[in-house]
Amino acid sequence: MSMRKNRTHDFASSPPEPVAGNGLLHRRALLERGVMLAGAVATGAGSQLASASAEPLTNGPWSLAPGVPIPPYGQPSKFEQKVVRTLSNPKLEPRTSGARTPHHLLNGTITPNGLHFVVARGGETEIDPDKHRLLIHGLVRQPMIYTVDALHRYPMVSRISFVECGGNSAPLYSKEPIQGNVQALHGLCSCAEWTGVALATLLDEVGVDPKAKWFIAEGADLPTMNKSIPLAKAMDDAMIALYQNGEAINPSNGYPMRLLLPGYEGNMNVKWLRRIKLVDSPVMAINETKQYTILRPDGKAWQFYFPQEVKSFITHPSPGLSIKGPGFYEISGISFSGNGRISKVEVSADGGKSWAQAARQQPVLSKAFTRFRMAWNWDGGPVILQSRATDEAGNVQPSREAFIAERGPPRGTPNVAAFTMEHCNVITSWGINPKGEVSHVYA
Amino acid sequence: MSMLEKLAVSLALTLGVSVAGAADAPRLGQPIAPNDLASWDISIGPDGSGLPLGSGTPSQGAAVYAAHGCAACHGEKGSGGPSGPLVGGGPLNTTDRDPVKLIGNYWPYATTIFDYTRRAMPWQQPKTLTNDEVYALTAYILALNKIIGENDAMNAETLPKVKMPNRDGFISKYPEKH
């Protein structure tokens, strides 16, 4: 598989303006030629645009006969069968199951529901919505039970929000750069439009006791995992999500309802939600004592580390998406922050010696994926591509060196699926050799 | 700002105080009586709140461990298997090898063992153990880790009093990072 090279840029009549080392170009090279770029992609033109346009049209079978009946529920083209999640536990052995999003095979910012990442301790479960209930109790005036039907009658809100596993990108903490594609390294994050009932609406109905400072959220699947969450988050932007990208939440992601805590660690967004209990202090569940705590070099551990911090990674090109020969390419990738909007993404093609600001695809939303794009003229030499995001709170994505200085040195180079670190948001480096092959490197 | 966002902000400002702005929500919750909450409320706090009646000893726990085939996932006497060990764990402040976060060297509260076992174990048949059996398994695991004695019974009174070795090993990031 290779990235499409774009030959529409007329270097002779309008030399693009370099903005950083190794061929990074001013964003005008993207913006002013956007229409031409779009046209080239729409015709499916690959590396031989000039000669292809001279060939006479041959009608394919699709132009000469009726198609098939429109299916009741559409599936991706059979030519896209490789665009699937990778599974860490395909036989559902008694351990955690992970399913990773193929970011290198997608574009835009919204993850299709069937490709949204999943981490689940007991597999995917199928809940009968007529039998499911949500209980809200604890430090409240009146404990209440809600049917799924009842929740669907409440005023709803929608927001586009990423969800990221606390262990996403853990392989980048290893001693040696683990060779894996962007799906293996960064596939435990996704972004969707979620629609549901603001948790604050339901809490107003049950009446919050002023002594309540936290709430415990609990799922209905096999392990019935629970987690303590500050009540302030419930009053801020927490949602009982019922819809994912316009349709009922996928079973993998919590049908018929999940908790959505925009920007907070994935496991806190409890899937298959069945119970919320308001309490005055954390319950000290396994997911906030053993799991999702970060051991420091001094032997102490960080606990209740909630927001997923500012991160970006380049999806195109990336390992497995080689590039074919010198010329004009678009570098693009994904950025997000659990602390607000992405204010800036910089790209380097020389391993961090020089940086240029990438174009952010609008709209730039708080706690949502923001795609960035950078025009690039590759001269065919070895390069190291990096991206570095900054959020509106001023947080800058750290270098690997800075991250290790704070968290301590990695202890080894484990399997790519191992979780040796959490909340790892270091800069990712892709090395590209003169053949155009992309690998994961440290720079 | 939408009406609901305004509502959320207003609620945040007046935490715990009823807000008239939510009057347009349909209020379709069904009140549940305190007595009916028992089957739902399986939360157990680190202070022991929520612990049920019942009791169990390490030797009773060894029998439960054998009867339910726990060794298939956790090994003989919790020595390790596909789902990891239940005993052992070295020092946490070392950098020369990967310190494994285990019950004996890492978990801060013994109540979490009871809670997680009751809600999630055994993996193929969770929520089928009696409270006596869960207390017994908890006692067995604690005794294997030499945190309690061989004959110490665990129940709602004794379990919260168990001081785990790493009880003071945690530093909260909230609200510093929120």
From TrEMBL, chain B:
Stored Pfam families: Cytochrom_C
Annotated source species: Candidatus Acidiferrum panamense
Record-linked Gene3D superfamilies: Cytochrome c-like domain
The entry's keywords: Heme, Iron, Metal-binding, Signal
Signal peptide: 1-22
GO MF: electron transfer activity; heme binding; metal ion binding
Lineage: superkingdom: Bacteria
Every Cytochrome c domain range: 56-145
Entry protein name: Cytochrome c
InterPro entries: Cyt_c-like_dom, Cyt_c-like_dom_sf, Cytochrome_c-type_DH
